[in-house]
Write a structure and sequence with these properties.
The strands form 2 sheets. The protein has a 7-stranded mixed β-sheet. The chain has a 6-stranded mixed β-sheet with strand order 5-4-3-2-1-13, covered by helices on one side. The chain has a single domain (2-257), classed as Metallo-beta-lactamase, Chain A (4-Layer Sandwich), CATH 3.60.15.10. It is of the alpha/beta class. The termini are close together. Helix 1 (32-41) crosses helix 3 (65-72). Helices cover 29% and strands 23% of the residues. The chain is built from 10 helices and 13 strands. The structure holds zinc ion (ZN) (2 copies). One zinc ion (ZN) binds at residues 13, 58, 60-61, 143, 217.
Length: 265
């Protein structure tokens, strides 16, 4: 299995996962044109993508859906609650639907077995998931207020984890771009995950297996890649001697502006 995060952050999220001949795009928050460009930059042919999975309706995850789905002709796997909340109207009738999914039900796309689970976030039916193929398991959670017990349980035995590390609390408080109401939403239990909360997850709940921990959905205004990276590394090092020796090489950062290198598993 291999993974490329094409873009991650409030300006747009899209991730490509490949196993055998199955190619799945997770979320479509970049424009159609930009998504096509980044898929090609990652060395893939957009028209070979079999399916699109949408985690929730927020614009940074779904705004490019109808354009991308129509352009590449891939089947869209989206929950009915999420689709209704997308407000795409009859544009959605022009896209090919995959099976109706929900945050509570496992589903399959080609070689991939998806195990979604509900997360605390202010959307209609948002989910995080683990996905398995070829004996490899990855976990992905972005857009969640905190890592609840269910996430801790589902993320055991993952070979790679893509995890939100949205903001540094002091930077968010001091940020002059956001009104206080937005700050409260981000910091709320159904908002986004702070660097501290991800560090807590890594210290208390991470089982130590994943050798690739990708920090995702970093805020451009209230976080810095190096601040997020150091918080995660420090949390892993506190687990010494279990995995202090390679903490630095495990932690990677997803960028809002460009695809990550492929993570091969
Ligand atoms: Zn988001
Ligand atoms: Zn969201």
């Amino acid at each position: 299995m291999r993974i490329c995060i094409l873009g991650s952050g409030s300006s747009g999220n899209a991730t490509l996962i490949v196993a055998g001949e199955t190619r799945v795009l997770i979320d479509c928050g970049l424009s159609g044109k930009e998504t096509m460009r980044r898929i090609q930059e990652a060395g893939e042919d957009p028209h070979k993508i079999n399916a699109i999975v949408i985690t929730h309706e927020h614009g940074d995850h779904a705004s490019g859906l109808h354009v991308i789905a129509k352009t590449i002709g891939a089947a869209v796997f989206i929950s009915t609650a999420t689709l209704n909340a997308c407000k795409l109207g009859d544009k959605v009738n022009k896209v090919k639907r995959g099976d109706a999914i929900s945050s509570a039900q496992d589903f399959e796309v080609g070689d991939f077995k998806f195990h979604p689970f509900t997360i605390p976030h202010d959307a209609a039916d948002p989910f995080a998931f683990t996905v398995e193929a070829d004996g490899i398991k990855i976990g992905m959670a972005v857009d969640l207020g905190y890592y609840h017990g269910l996430a801790a349980e589902r993320f055991r035995e993952c070979d790679a984890l893509i995890l939100e590390s949205n903001y540094e609390t002091d930077m968010l408080r001091a940020c002059t771009y956001y009104p206080w109401s937005l700050k409260q939403r981000i910091m709320g239990r159904h908002g986004h995950t702070s660097n501290d909360e991800l560090a807590r997850f890594l210290r208390d709940d991470f089982d130590g297996r994943a050798h690739h921990i990708v920090l995702a959905h970093l805020s451009q205004n209230s976080n810095h890649p190096e601040v997020a990276r150091l918080a995660a590394i420090q949390a892993l090092q506190e687990r010494a001697p279990l995995f202090s020796s390679n903490a630095e090489s495990r932690v990677k950062i997803a960028n809002y502006a460009a695809p990550t290198p492929w993570i091969e598993l």
